[in-house]
Amino acid sequence: MQRSSRMGSVVVLLALFCVVTSHLALAFTDGLLGNGNFEKAPKSSDMKGTVVLKSNAIPEWEISGFVEYIKAGQKQGDMLLVVPEGYAAVRLGNEASIKQKLNVTPGMYYSLTFSAARTCAQDEKLNVSVAPDSDVLPIQTVYNSEGWDLYAWAFRASYSVAVIILHNPGVEEDPACGPLIDSIAIRALYPPKATNKNLLKNADFEEGPYILPNTSWGVLIPPNIEDDNSPLPAWTVESLKAIKYIDSDHFSVAQGKRAIELVGGRESAIAQVARTIVGKTYELTFAIGDASNSCEGSMIVEAFAGSDTIKVPYESKGKGGYKRAVLRFKAVAIRTRVMFFSTYYHTSSKDFASLCGPVVDDVKLLSVRSPRRLV
Ligand SMILES: *[C@@H]1O[C@H](CO)[C@@H](O)[C@H](O)[C@H]1NC(C)=O
Ligand SMILES: *[C@@H]1O[C@H](CO)[C@@H](O)[C@H](O)[C@H]1NC(C)=O
């Protein structure tokens, strides 16, 4: 009797806890920031041509420096300025920035998603910051043939107000030469933990940056420059190029709703370190496939667990599908680094320009029980 009533109060407490936490989560809405796609225009009296004159002229934003408000179809000389989504975007000239404040929960992790299109600068970069974190992301390589890409960047909130700043640190001869920015969205991240069913965290890639429902390009996760917060919790993108985060609404994934596409060949690896026991045997299993995005040909994914490695071939017809692979290894350290990259570089057979590659999903790392001996 005593025991069951105690159990009852535990259940009530748990239920209360759930109500409280779900309420907190609801207070924050994932999606576009206020006027995050710049569809609300500045007053024409606050503009001279395309140049925005006042710091608060663009609804919901504060700007500084040479910022232009660019409408779809607009040209600079012969060059069409690419507006990634909808009616308009902003363009950040030399040292220009846009800023917006947002209420957040200190200690929680958030991921920003935004689209950026390169225009005329040689070496275009974007400095994304939420104090005290900031990173300069190269937006030089255009992965998508449309002329723009979606990028993700994550931060851990230190204060209850996050001041989100996108800043072009460039100094070009033509002060207008800078990136076009559009579709700025945010998502609260809930970094998953390792369990007794999987020694890797977020191994199915379900937790990650916001994917704009109307875009069918996925989101690039740039290489972590230092040991920063990852928009793909628990994973680090290493080397030079980004990997792409894709969703099942627009692509084929092996399991669940999300997966990663290795679009940078040997120049982009994704890694995670797991706790292991020296001398124990483990199995790293994973799915390799294609995203159903016309990425055709012979693919190979190289998987590593410490110094053990496996090369898994996959013949892609570009129409979706996957196979599973296993790497069995004996741990030689208390931490084992698991890593994946694509051996080859691929481009879409639709436009021969968009970078693409094999999809990795549903990764599992588990120790293998030593087989029982029959006596
Ligand atoms: C990036 O922006 C932050 C915040 O505005 C600033 O503190 C930092 O110095 C900038 N970094 C570069 C390289 O411009
Ligand atoms: C997505 O597209 C639909 C139809 O074109 C539009 O009504 C909606 O506002 C768009 N959503 C976003 C977030 O852009």
TrEMBL record:
Entry keyword annotation includes Secreted: yes
Domain named DUF642: residues: 31-187, 198-365
Pfam families: DUF642 (PF04862)
Alphabetical list of InterPro entries matching this protein: DGR2-like_dom, Galactose-bd-like_sf, Pectin_Meth_Modulator
Alphabetized UniProt keyword annotations: Cell wall, Glycoprotein, Secreted, Signal
Signal peptide positions on this chain: 1-27
Protein's cellular compartments: Secreted, Cell wall
Segments passing through the bilayer: none
KW Glycoprotein (keyword) present: yes
PANTHER family on file: OS02G0205200 PROTEIN, OS02G0527500 PROTEIN-RELATED
Protein's name according to its UniProt entry: DUF642 domain-containing protein
